[in-house]
Amino acid sequence: MASDKKQEVMMAARLMVQARGYSALSFRDLAEAVGVKSSSIHYYFPTKGDLGAALARQYTDEFMEYLNGLQQQGLDWKTCLDKYADVFRETLLRENRMCMAGVLAAERPGLAPEVRAEVERFTEQIVGWLARVLAVGHPRMDAEAVKGRAFAVFSAIEGAQLVARGCDDVSVFDNTLAAYRVAGLLP
Q1: Which of 120-148 are b and which e, b meaning 16 or more Cβ less than 10 Å from the residue's Cβ?
Q2: Cys-Cys with 150: which of 19, 47, 72, 131 at CB 3.0–4.6 Å?
Q3: Model-level pTM?
Q4: Which sequence spans correspond to the domains of the chain?
Q5: 49-183, what's its fold?
C-alpha cells in the first residue's frame, strides 16, 4: 500500500516537473494532487533533492528499458533511432510536456548534487545507447566519432523538443527532424 502511494507521488511529481519545471515543484502542490498531507510526501522523500533524484533515476531506468527492448526485438538501427525520436514527439503531444531529464538539465544550477548526478547518468546512458545503435549503422566509423555523433543526435532531439514546446507546436519538432535528416544527422 505504501509503495503504491509512493509511486502515485512519483507519477504526479513527474507530470508536474515535465509541465512546469523542477523549480516549480512544491511538496504542498504535490500533496494536494495525490490527496495526502505534505508531511506524507516528506515521509517518502525527506528532501526535494531526494525526490528529484528518485524521479530522474526512475525516468532513466524506464527509458533505458524501453530503448534496450527495441534492440532486443531485433529492430534495425534506423527504426531504433526513429522510435527514440518518437518518444520525444509523443511527450510533446501529451499536453506539451518535455523530457524530464531535459527539464532538469535546463535547471542544473539550482539542482541538488544528487539530482545533478542522476541527470548526468541519464545523458551517459542515452548517449551510450545511441552510440551502440549508430555503430551498427556506421561500422567503419571509429568509436570516438560514433560517440560524438551520438551526443549530437541526443542534443539535437532534446533541442528540437525544447523549441517545439516553446512554440507549442509539434510540427516544429517534425520539421526540425526532417531538416536533420536532410543534413545527414539522422538517417
Answers
A1: ebbbebbbebbbbbbbeeeeeeeeeebbe
A2: 131
A3: 0.93
A4: 49-183
A5: Tetracycline Repressor; domain 2 (1.10.357)
